[in-house]
Structures are given as structure tokens and as C-alpha cells.
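Example 3.
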Amino acid sequence: MTSPISPIGALGSVPGLDAVNGVGGAGALTGAERSTAVQGPNESFASMLSRGLESVQASQAKADDLALQVADGTLKDPAQYTMAANEAALGMQLTLAIRNKAVEAFQEIMRMQA
Amino acid sequence: MFNDVSSSALRVAVAGLSARQTAIAQNIANIETPGYQARKVKFEEALSTAVDHGASPSSVTPSVQNSLEPSRLNGSNVNLDEETLSHVDTTMRYQLTLRALDSKYSMLRTAITGG
Amino acid sequence: MSTFNAIGVAASGVTVYRKWLDAVSDNIANIDNVTRTSDKAFQARYVIAQEAQDGNGAQVGGVALGSAEGVLVHEPDNPLADTQGYVRRPDIDLGSQMAQLMMAQRAYQANLSVVDRAKDSYTAAINLGK
């Protein structure tokens, strides 16, 4: 169980995520480019992002378990911990980067519609 | 914010390893002091017991005990080989534990600054 | 020195064993120090280590002096010989002084290594969060 103010929770609130979802679901866009956020055939951007968040949460939980082993001295290979910590950190940065791009794209679309 | 099980356990480990480093320094400084009893710091078992039973790790404090090694001719029971190896182990684990705390801090920092 | 506690403790050890090394080297240097029978022989110095009073490391508890009588040796040709041809030589055994030298040297180096390793630990603690 992560604490209430875990880093992952901070990512969950993405402004305009539903709007991006709606644009993707409509299929066609008035204007130039198709939203780059929709990738899978029937997958909405929101569910992709929440899958990403879950996997970051899982890798953070794994890093936390290994951190416990570091604390009580039972970890056999320190590289296991440092790898898990790096994966969790990179996963989070990647998810954040995707979110930020989505927000930018949304803002650009909003400008076009006006 | 920093009270989850692994942060708490890491903080206890830092305190324990630091106390152990001081105890090792004491033992090596007194290696030829007649009648000196080497000191050992213990915390790992108490920590894993607390975690297994779901208790908060912050209740664990490192304890200092006398070593059960036999005394040498001059009455000191400091075993230099053991102390040296223990010191190398302690310093490396101390750095790894600090690294673990550091990566928790930086994850939070990334989330706060938004990447 | 109390913030970087382990370094202060090890430093006290370094001091004690440095004094011990000095005493032993001095004993060995004076092993052929011949004196007249009317004077005292050169007295070997023995450093007594004890735990520091403030609980941090070790200190020199005192210096014991060896025998003042030394060993009476018959050397009539020695310029310092008395009327019966005896001189005093220090009661110092080279073998046991060498053994002490090795012990003191080993303890000295062990304490220096502690300083070095503790310094790495504390540096890591200082750099946390950078």
C-alpha cells in the first residue's frame, strides 16, 4: 500500500485528459493533424496512461520491497535494488513526459478550435 | 509523507549502521587495551521481525552489546580481521542505504516538479 | 570531531599507536646505550593503552619504565667500565621489541584505514539529495 501522498497519485490528475479522450473517440478531426495520442485500435488515451501509471506503481512497489531488504541486510545483490530503483524512476519520468505531451497536444487542439 | 514502511526501515538502518561504524572504530582504537571488551551493534533482526509482524520499523532502536569473542593474551577481545571486514561491509551498506533513501526523495521531487 | 564520530574515535587510536611506535623505536635505538655502573641503565618505555575517559576511543594511560638496573656486563675495554670492568647495558630484548613494533604498526594502520573508510561513508551522507 503506498502512502496517500505517493508520487504516483500526483500523476493521476491530468487536466483535459477526458477531452483528449473525446477527440480521439470521435475519429475524424477538423483541421490538420490527427491526434498522436491514440495508438491502439480501440484503446483510449486515458486507459493507456492509467496502464502506464499502474506499471510505474508496480515498479515502485518492487523497489520498496527491495529497499526493505537493503535495510535489514538480507539483500543478496545490491545491483537488484539499484536497477529496480532506476526502473521505477525512469518509468515515472517517461509517464510524466507522455502526460506532458498529451497536455501540450490538447492545448494546441483547443487553440485550433477557437 | 515519509512514513511508509520502507522509508522508516531505511532510516532505522542508517542509524544502526552509523552506530555500528562508531562501535567498530572504538574497537579498533582499543585493540591493544588490556581487558577491553569489543562492542557489537545489532538491529537487523529486530528490524526484520518488526516488518514481518507489521509493526512500524521506527520502533526499532539499534542496541549495543558486548562481543562474545574469546580474549587474547593481553586481555582484549577485539578480532581485527572481523572488525576490518565488518567495517568494509558497514560502509558499503551505509552508502547503499543512503542511495535507497535518495532515490525515494528524487521520485517525489520528480512528481512535484512535473518531470 | 563529534559530528564525524568514527573519525574522531579512530584518530585517538592513531595517536596511541603512534606513541607506542615512537617508544618502541626509541627502545631499539638505545639498545646499545651503555652506561656506567654508577648511573642508571637506559630504561625501556612501555606505553599502556586504555579506553578513553570520555568513552570515545583510546588514550595513553601511562608510560611504564623498564628496569633501571639493566644488565651488568663485563667489558673491561669499554671506556665507561668501572674499576672491576663492568658496565650497564639496558635490559631490552630485541626480539620482544620487534614483536611489539609489529603489533603497534598493525594497530596504527588499522586505525588509519578506519579513518579512510569512515570518511567515504560520511561523504556519501553529505551528498544525499544532490
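The mean pLDDT of chain B is 89. The longest strand of chain B covers residues 39-42.
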